[in-house]
Amino acid sequence: MTDKSLIAVLKKFETEGLAAVRDASDLGALERVRVELLGRKEGSISVVLRGLSNVPPDERPTVGQEANRVKEILSRAIVERESSFIEGTSISHEDLTLPSRATWEGAIHPVTQAVDEISKIFRDLGFTRARGPEADTEWYNFEALNTPLDHPAADEQDTLYLTDSVLLRSHTSPVQMRTMEKHDPPIRIIAPGWVYRRDTYDATHTPAFMQVEGLVIDEGITFVDFKATLAEFARRYWGPDTEVRFRPSFFPFTEPSAEVDVKRVVTRQDGTREEMEWLEIMGAGMVDPAVIENAGYDPERYTGFAFGMGPGRIAMIKHGVDDLRRFFENDVRFLGQFTS
Ligand code: PHE
């Protein structure tokens, strides 16, 4: 064959090949066209290129160039057709220098994280979780807990009443009585939940906040169990070097009552240890026999302890947040810092 006729054949391959590529209706058909034209063994163009040794030496460069040009054009057409089948992508137009889009990742709210960590520690200590209603009666919120209705806490100044005797619970302690009514001792529960008070909204108060209540009732529970359990909780939450102190206090439903304080020891990056200041983390005490009696248990046989803590305050201390309102504003720039 002369180079003229070979070049005509290549032209024919080009026109017919481009038409075949255009007509390929799916990726399978396109692949068959590719093999027919460019397949290494039997592909038309490959056959021509392999046959170049039979072309007279002075004609070889022209035929070779033409064969490579047609090969190039057909390959490009095949790649383009291929990307048209893959929706929305065009390989030739992709800008690989574009910065990638930011991915949004959800995060657990820092107060919920505190509730979860507290719950896990008490679960490891053998506690289960209990719950009670947020709208409750004066009986469960106050009277059953040995708090007369003329006690200042029952005052309308502090409590959000829904009707004459139904209110939004001002603490999670009503879950103590609701649990004791349903179950016989031994009882070992925590009850996380929302509580409500007629408080101004400022850096350290919000009208709705969370508490985690705890209650243990059994035969032979002593002040030692009380102190040891809460000290163990504090060390597991704040670190093994944490110091714990019990300061005498008063709650109508516990006797004796205590405020529990912790002193954390922080180890700096350079290895130096710094003792932090004392922080109050909960109210607690031995369950008053009057409460045990209200539950219908024999106060001669059963004793126990109870505690209540604010995970919002605990989260503030833990993360060095100085304004409680940050936890309620739901600003993602703030909340995004607590992914873990
Ligand atoms: N209910 C108390 C409060 O809201 C806390 C507390 C719970 C104290 C249980 C003693 C025992 O402040």
| Radius of gyration, whole Å | 39 Å
Tell me the β content. 15-25%
Supply the CATH architecture of the largest domain: 2-Layer Sandwich
> Outline, from the CA principal axes?
rod-shaped
**Class inferred from helices and paired strands:** alpha+beta
How would a crystallographer describe the biggest sheet?
A: 7 strands, mixed
CATH superfamily of the largest domain, by name, is: Bira Bifunctional Protein, Domain 2
Report what the structure shows.
The structure is a single chain. This protein has helices spanning 3-23, 27-38, 44-50, 60-85, 110-124, 138-141, 174-182, 223-238, 289-294, 311-319, 326-329, 332-335, and strands at 128-129, 135-137, 166-168, 187-196, 208-219, 243-251, 254-267, 273-287, 302-309. The strands form 2 sheets. The chain has a 7-stranded mixed β-sheet, with helices on both faces. The chain has a two-stranded antiparallel ribbon with strand order 2-3. 39% of the residues lie in helices and 22% in strands. It is rod-shaped and about 115 Å long. The longest helix is centred in the N-terminal third of the chain and has 26 residues, at 60-85. It is α+β, with helices and mostly antiparallel strands and 340 residues long. The chain has 2 domains: 3-87; 110-338, BirA Bifunctional Protein, domain 2. α1 (3-23) runs antiparallel to α2 (27-38) and α2 runs antiparallel to α4 (60-85). The model has no long low-confidence stretch (mean pLDDT 91). The relative contact order is 0.10. Bound molecules: phenylalanine. Phenylalanine binds at residues 171, 173, 251, 254, 283-285, 306-308.
